[in-house]
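Morning run. Coffee first, then this:
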Amino acid sequence: MKIDLHAHILPDKWPDFEKQFGYGGWVTLERNSDGKAMMMKNGEPFRPVDERVWSSEARLKDMNRTGVVIQVLSTVPVMFSYWASPADTQVVSRFLNDNIAGTVASNPDRFLGFGTVPLQDPIRAAEELKRCKTELKMVGIQIGTHVDDRNIGDPFFDPFLKAAADIDMPLFIHPWDMRDQGRHSKYWLPWLVGMPSETTQAALSLMFGGAFERFPNLRVCLAHGGGALPYTVSRAKHAFDVYPGAMRVDCVRDPLSYLKDDQLFADTLVHNEHSLNLALEIMGHDNLMLGSDYPFLLGEHHPGKLIETTQYSTELKEKLLYKNAQRFLNLP
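And here it is:
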């Protein structure tokens, strides 16, 4: 049994949002005759993709080949569109969510869905979150690490976080909108350095901002093994101890106290056993779950193989491969 919590999907086509809304910046998809496509942003190539990102049949073949029983589908983060008009992003979010819900409905035994929301407007985001749960029967919401200069732990987002906590809708936090200009423009540094940094900053902002105290039922999962958090959380604890005037403005708990509880989780996308061991030690055996970043090249190409090839006990492997995800997602 494997539940892959971190698997991205796109529609096979979508409206011309630039024409619909009257301004640019929207992602488009240029399909080729060979079953591949290029995601375009502002007229420039953003990322090459192939049919696995939109074809249920193609991903089911991969799932059967690698033993993944269930994928939790979420949009590609560049589609968040938090930079746009909230009303327009709400339209885009509804379109993407309806598309994911349709894919889930076509294979309900193999797919579950994470929704996306117009997070730049927490009230609209809360409305779409509720629709995702009540109408579309989704199991959670994927959100980005920030909106403009606001970290996700900013009280600005409280109406959305409260709604998630009130109806027990877990959040999957995925890094996005990393700096990619100047010294960040080469060697995939936005993905290699920017993504772990974004995730760590989001987690610490929730801790130091007191969000987990304001909303005790709030539950979040951090992508990519928690970013750099397992390696740096002790540094944050030290800062909490030595700089109380700066660090204890909005919280009373040190960062280590949030680990290994039922509010903070992470996926297992860390690429080697040493890193996985550290994540297990810091996050806890009950708080990590399989995530592959399917179908992208930086993901785990055979989801769960790292876990399966360790010397971990059968009990721990089962927790990482599916049992922890069942608990996080409120699955029977």
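The chain has a mean pLDDT of 96. Good start to the day.
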